[in-house]
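Re: the request from the purification team.
They wanted to know what the chain is likely to look like in 3D before they choose a buffer screen. I agreed to run a prediction and write the result into the notebook, where they can find it.
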Amino acid sequence: TKVLEFLESRKCIELEKKLEKENCSEERKNRQLLSLGRKESSFLRLRRTRLGLDDFITVKVIGKGAFGEVRLVQKTDSGKIYAMKTLRKADMFKRDQLAHVKAERDVLAESDSPWVVQLYYSFQDSSYLYLIMEFLPGGDLMTMLIKYDTFSEDVTRK
């Protein structure tokens, strides 16, 4: 689509500008642009993949929240482990949180930060929205803050 083409060309232009500022060799610039192209291609392939609950096996429930729960799941075809956040649509509508949930999904999908959990897939059925994310053992930040109140400087550096 036009939007995807625009975003792809914008990312290429941004990368080229960044590489120019860093005075990179032509060889490195080409490697970086090829890498970006491969990532974009992989991302678009994943977006075209239609998934559903049948594509995952629940290992165990690892958390519960206001709109649903988080499960440790395994993808049936690859055996890869993910965290599946299951959100009840009725609760999101009732509490007028639909925009917040969409914003969360968009941020997770577009972020390329090592500090933000990666979203691999999202899909829905008539009752639930499912976010398939990178599984990071150790719990979530909010639970840790509630448990420990504050973190020492040493802990924040790890």
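For the purification team: The domain at 53-144 is CATH 3.30.200.20 (Phosphorylase Kinase; domain 1).
Please add any questions underneath this entry.
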